[in-house]
């Protein structure tokens, strides 16, 4: 049994809204990353408001957030006649592009060539973080980090061992997947299932703006899960880790809600 | 050019005598382990003196050492008429048998199935040593140990990873092979080369007692190197680690000096 047209949208928004992270600047970053990441992509102040305001965020809060994003160099704005248009700066676009592959992969390729980097454990030691060739390592302890891919060439101070996990104790699972991350994934999975039941039978019943609002909420909340989830073999996660189910539900919904054209958003 | 018969033996003894470890009880342990490890094997006080005294150790020092070894349960003594006979106790024989495989292997089998055990690195942590399934692990740091062979089954607190070394930094090589161990191996290698040049052309020119004395000195000194050398892949040792050359020289000489019969030692 479906709600009336207005009711289902309000209920879906309520369900999908992140109970933890309602920072408006962060929601705007998710929105631009999802809809207007290409060079030349712009969103008018009006379209921005029509997408964001149904979530209960006030125009004043949007203005403050845009001001902050301009100050931080993420977003720039320009006037076209009476219309104010907003777009990602080169810096903002680069940051957005950096995380997009992790956010938008429905099936991440299984990482290979796992290896450990071990730093010396002594009083005057250099912190492991300063010795790591990149940041893409998961820190297992003060002196041990785990990563995948090609072996680093330039880390003379570190013991490098190719490895594959045989037994993973609970303290490692908790380190890889702390309770907050587990709860965030579980909460999103529940929200997505509820939202799926609320949606109308056909995507044609949604306006481009409604589609944009729902995608924004889903992507924003998924970012918090997927970007905090270390890329580690399944063995490192708790047996009941809802990450893969959550990812599947995200992409089932995003596929059902295809990205609207920017022109359609401005037209309404 | 060879020395006169007496001179070569005195020079070989001087060359082979360990400059670091002249503890008489320890030399006697090496001697019994080499010549009289089997149940029923006995050495008379006279034979013991004739083997040991050429190294400059006085009869009184031998008596004190035997007293200590009896007190510690390593050795027992019995009178046969006017002769005092000494032999390993069951305890002493077991200790001796425990280390013999490592001491007497001319070519140790390459260890396989290397794995790391990683303990949690936190304030209230249980020391790694208390969590290790056996003592045959090399401690790389406070929380990381390396071992070979079958994966441990019963260490729930530890992360277990099969591994193979790719890059070994200097701090690991120094930990695996500290300067004292390196110097001991290098010193023994030099001593063995000098001794080889001093020996007569044919082993038939040596008496059983001379053979026993030289074997005792070689084995005693080799113990200090081989029992302190961790069983780790070659990559973990310094590039100029003299261990393998030292082992080869030890067994070249021990083969040239075959173990004399106990009866031959008593007959002289």
Could you characterize what this model shows?
The structure is a homodimer of 268-residue chains. Chain A is 48% helix and 12% strand. Chain A has 11 helices and 7 strands. The first copy, chain A, starts with a helix and ends with a helix. The relative contact order of chain A is 0.16. The interface between A and B is medium-sized, with 30 and 30 residues. Strand 7 (159-167) of chain A pairs antiparallel with strand 7 (159-167) of chain B. Chains A, B: Residues 25-90 form the Transcriptional repressor PaaX-like N-terminal domain.
Short characterization:
The structure is a homodimer. With about 270 residues, the first copy, chain A, is α+β, with helices and mostly antiparallel strands.
Write the layout of secondary structure elements.
Two copies of one chain form a homodimer.
Chain A: H1 5-16, H2 24-35, E1 43-44, H3 45-52, H4 59-71, E2 75-80, E3 83-88, H5 90-103, E4 115-118, H6 128-131, E5 138-139, E6 144-147, E7 159-167, H7 170-176, H8 179-198, H9 208-226, H10 243-256, H11 262-267
Antiparallel strand pairs in A: 1-3, 2-3, 4-6, 4-7, 5-6
Helix pairs in contact in A: 1-8, 1-9, 2-4, 2-9, 3-9, 8-9, 8-10, 9-10
Could you tell me the mean pLDDT of chain A? 91
Mind telling me the CATH class of the largest domain in chain A? Answer: Mainly Alpha
The assigned structural class of chain A equals alpha+beta
Q: Which oligomerization state do the chains in this entry correspond to?
A: homodimer
Quote the beta fraction of chain A. 5-15%
| CATH architecture descriptor text of the largest domain in chain A | Orthogonal Bundle
Strand order of the largest sheet of chain A: 5-6-4-7
- Globally, the shape of chain A reads globular
The total of helices of chain A stands at 11
Termini separation of chain A (Å)?
A: 29 Å
Task: Examine the coordinates and then state which fold CATH places here, giving the name of the CATH topology of the largest domain in chain A.
Answer: Arc Repressor Mutant, subunit A
User: Considering DSSP H and I runs of 4 or more, what fraction of the residues of chain A is helical?
Assistant: 40-55%
